[in-house]
Amino acid sequence: MNLFRDKQIKFFIIFLFSFSLLIFLSSMGLNAVQEKAIQNLFLSHDKAIVTSLLEQGISKDVIAKAVTNTVSSQEGTALLVSIGITEHTSIRFLPFIAEFQRISGYFMLPVGAFLSILLFGGTFIFLWKREQLYQRAAKVITRFTEGDFSCRMPQMSEGTIYRLFASLDQLATILQSKNEAGQKAKKFLKNTISDISHQLKTPLAALTMYHEIISDEPDHIKTVIEYSEKTGLALKRMQQLIQAMLKITRLDAGSIVFEKESCRISELVLQAIGELTTRASSEGKEIIIDESSEETIICDKQWTSEAIGNIVKNALDHTDSGGEIHISWNRTPAMLRILISDNGSGIPPEDLHHIFKRFYRSKKSLDTQGVGLGLSLTKSIVEGQGGIISVQSTLHEGTTFILSFLTES
Question: Any idea where the domains of the chain sit in the sequence?
C-alpha cells in the first residue's frame, strides 16, 4: 500500500500496533495480579471466619461444611441483611473488598497513566513532525509565489504526501520555465525594438536632410535629381532593414513553420542566385556552380534559397572586380553540405566569431553595401531547420561558408 511508503505514517502505525500489544499484555498482567489478589483475599476471609467459629466451639466438621458450601438460602440472606450486609452496602464497610479495591488501584492507576502518556506522547511526536513537514512545504510554496524557484519541496521519503510535493516541484519547474520564457521574450522584444529604432535613425536623418535640400532648391533640377536618387536609396535601405528584422524576429520567436520538401540542390541554388547574376555581371564578377553531382535535400525551399542568396550577396560585397564565387555541395554519411566560397578580401580573425551578430560590421567593411543582417538571418534560417552554419576564412585570400543539413533517414 502507498500508505506504508510514508516513513512517518509507517512508524506511527507500528507505534499504534505496539501500543495495542502493550495494552493486551498489560491487561493480561493485571488480570493475573487481580486473580492472585482475589485468591489471597478469599483465603484471608475464610481463615478469619474459621478462626472465629473455632473460638466459639463450633465443630470442625460443621465449619468445613460451611466453608465449602455453595448454596445460599433465604435464612442466610436474611441473616446477612440483619447485620447490614447487602448489595447496597458501602465497600468501606466490607474490609476485604476494600482491600481488593486498594490493591487494584495501586496497579491499574500507574499502568493506565503510563499507557495514556505513551499514547499521547507518540501521537504528539507524529503530529509535530507532520506539522514541521507542512511548515517547510508552506515556506517553499511561499517562495514559489514570490518568484523564487531555487528551493525544492521536501523529498525525504515515499508516500502520497511526497508524491504531492513532487508534483508541486514539477509545477514550480513549469512556472519557472514559463517565467524565464516570458522574461526572455520581453528582453528579445526590447532588444529588437532598440535595434530597429537605432538602425532607422541614420536613414531617417538622411531622408530629412535630403527633403530639406530639395525643398530649399526646387529650381535646381540637378540637385533635385541627385537627392531624389539618394532618397530612393535611403528608402530602399530602410525597406531592406525592416523586412530583414521582421524575418529574423519571426524566426527567433518560432512563429514561422518551415514547410520541408524534397528538392534538388541545383534548382535551389539557381533560385537563390537568380537575381544576383545580373549584379555579378555588372560588377565584373562570376558565380560558378559546380554541378558535378546531383543531390536532393529535405528543406524549406523558399527560406533555404534566401539563406544561400544572402551568403552569395555577402560574397559579392567583399569581392573585387574579377572575383569568383564558387558554389558546390557534397554528401557525407551523416550530413549534406553546401559550400559557398569566394576569393575576396577574407574576414579578419578578430571578426570571425562576430559575423553572425545582428548589425555587426567589421571596421574594414564599413564602406560595403548591406545593413549587417544578412548573415544573422541566414543563421536563423539554417538553425531553424536543424542545420549548422560554419565559416572558414583567410585574410586577403577568401572565405568559405558551409551549410550542413542532417541527412534524412
Answer: 2-145, 183-252, 260-406
pLDDT tens digits, residue range 243-289? 777 777 777 777 778 888 898 999 999 999 988 898 899 999 999 99
CATH top class, domain 260-406: alpha beta
- 324 DSSP β-pair partners: 286
pLDDT per position as a tens digit, 71-125: 777 777 777 777 777 777 676 666 766 666 676 777 778 877 888 888 888 888 8
How far is 206 from 231, CA to CA, in rounded Å? 8
Counting residues of the chain whose pLDDT is more than 90, the rounded percentage is 14
CATH class (in words) of the domain with range 183-252: mainly alpha
Q: Hey, CA dihedral for 181, 187, 193, 196, is it positive or negative?
A: negative
Q: How confident is the model at residue 152 (pLDDT cuts 50, 70, 90)?
A: confident
CA distance 317 to 166: 57
Q: Could you report the per-residue pLDDT of 10-38, keeping only the tens digit for each?
A: 777 888 888 888 888 888 877 777 777 77
CA distances from 388 to 77, 259, 351 (A): 113, 18, 19
Distance separating alpha carbons of residues 125 and 51, to the nearest angstrom: 58
- Sign of the four-CA dihedral 74, 80, 84, 86: negative
* Positive or negative torsion for Cα 41, 44, 48, 49: positive
Q: Which residues pair with 399 in a beta bridge?
A: 342, 393
Q: Answer yes or no: same fold for 183-252 and 260-406.
A: no
CB 394 within 8 A of CB 346: yes
Confidence band for 309, pLDDT divided at 50, 70 and 90: very high
Closest to 10 in 3D by CA, of 165, 168, 162, 117: 162
- Using left for φ > 0, alpha for ψ between -120 and 50, and beta otherwise, residue 386 falls in left
The Cα–Cα gap between 319 and 313 comes to 10
Residue 373 and residue 391: Cα distance in Å, rounded? 16
Question: Can you state the percent helix, strand and coil of the chain, rounding each to 5?
Answer: 65, 10, 25
What is the SS3 assignment for 248? helix
pLDDT tens-place string over residues 312-365: 998 998 899 999 999 999 988 888 999 999 998 888 888 888 888 876 666 555
